[in-house]
């Protein structure tokens, strides 16, 4: 109590990407960026029902420093003292804030390379592929021999040795050129593939689907728990609180359904509680 939770988290993302992950996370969790005693911190709550939560993040190249704490709320908006995340006092809220901090750390430490993404290496051209391409080249060799023989027949007479060797020399030159072109082709084709494979992998952002699911579950449970007014109040409030971040998730419809059910049965629970209270007062008035 009185000592902030602190953790230095090593990351491989650049500072800009880490700040984007942090901002998206706290926005979806319902935190707002505010000034607190000259510090820029993320804050949630005004102390009306639970202690307000504070998180401060400091990003630098290769790491993020995270500080988290709670405040004692005397009145809504009037705080005193600081609580860390250890100790029995305010255990439920401390565990909630600790869970959020751990979820943020998991997002920051997801796999990612320098420059904002993890680079996927391109598949190199194997020797077998090169050999297979080279073997396919001599299929046109008879045609190239005939083509090279025609100019030799039309040329001026030369020595017998030169006339005998010229088709073979020409054929070998054509074959070497074709093999050189074939060897260069896979390398040229692999360049677009390498460029495509090296595209950056974007970081995974926070998606509070579990909050949307919890909201729907609490809304459905409230259909029964309203019969016990205090139980209906508890489940409905949990459903409403969980629906707020859940509506910023990919399961928005689930959160909306939970929010509607929770509000309906919160009203029913309050009315049932007032009716029971009025009945108890009448019974007591008859007794006395």
UniProtKB/TrEMBL annotation:
The chain crosses the membrane at residues 216-244, 256-285. The keyword Transmembrane helix applies. It comes from the Bacteria. Residues 113-124, 145-160, 184-199 have a biased composition (Low complexity). Residues 161-175 have a biased composition (Polar residues). Residues 113-206 are annotated as: Disordered. Keywords: Membrane, Transmembrane, Transmembrane helix. The keyword Transit peptide does not apply. This is DUF4190 domain-containing protein. It comes from Luoshenia tenuis.
């Amino acid at each position: 109590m009185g000592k902030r939770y602190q953790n230095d988290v090593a990351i491989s993302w650049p500072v800009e990407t880490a700040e984007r992950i942090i901002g998206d996370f706290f926005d979806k969790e319902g935190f707002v960026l505010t000034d607190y005693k000259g510090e820029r911190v993320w804050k949630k709550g005004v102390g009306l029902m639970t202690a307000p939560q504070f998180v401060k993040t400091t990003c630098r190249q290769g790491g993020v420093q995270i500080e988290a704490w709670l405040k004692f709320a005397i009145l809504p908006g009037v705080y005193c003292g600081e609580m860390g995340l250890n100790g029995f006092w305010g255990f439920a809220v401390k565990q909630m804030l600790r869970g959020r901090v751990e979820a943020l750390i998991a997002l920051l430490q997801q796999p990612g390379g320098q420059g904002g993404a993890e680079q996927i290496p391109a598949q190199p051209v194997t020797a077998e592929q090169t050999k297979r391409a080279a073997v396919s080249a001599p299929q046109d060799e008879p045609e190239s021999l005939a083509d090279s023989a025609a100019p030799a027949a039309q040329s001026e007479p030369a020595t017998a040795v030169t006339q005998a060797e010229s088709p073979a020399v020409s054929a070998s030159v054509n074959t070497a050129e074709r093999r050189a072109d074939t060897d260069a082709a896979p390398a040229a084709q692999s360049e677009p593939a390498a460029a495509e494979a090296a595209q950056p992998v974007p970081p995974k952002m926070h998606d509070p689907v579990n909050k949307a699911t919890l909201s729907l579950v609490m809304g459905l449970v409230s259909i029964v728990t309203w019969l016990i007014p205090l139980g209906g109040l508890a489940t409905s409030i949990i459903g409403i609180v969980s629906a707020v971040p859940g509506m910023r998730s990919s399961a928005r419809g689930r959160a909306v359904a939970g929010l509607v059910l929770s509000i309906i049965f919160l009203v029913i629970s309050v009315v049932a509680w007032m009716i029971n209270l009025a009945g108890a007062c009448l019974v007591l008035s008859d007794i006395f």
